Amino acid sequence: MSSRKKDQEKKLIVTYTKSAIGYNQRQRGTLRALGLRRLGDVAEHRDTDVIRGMVDKVSHLVQVEEQLS
Question: Where are the alpha helices (H) located in the chain, listed in sequence order?
């Protein structure tokens, strides 16, 4: 990867905003895999298809912001 592409890599800022109580274990596991443990936690990830898919599965529990890094 060239340094120019690396400089313009997108990041996703994922914030845990709603409790997972009452939701199934898989969704809780997805939150943990994203690095979110408590309400208000924030995790930063590279913008990849895998992360996008995980965020899509718990989109009702998190808030996502795109950031150009």
Answer: 3-7, 25-33, 49-57
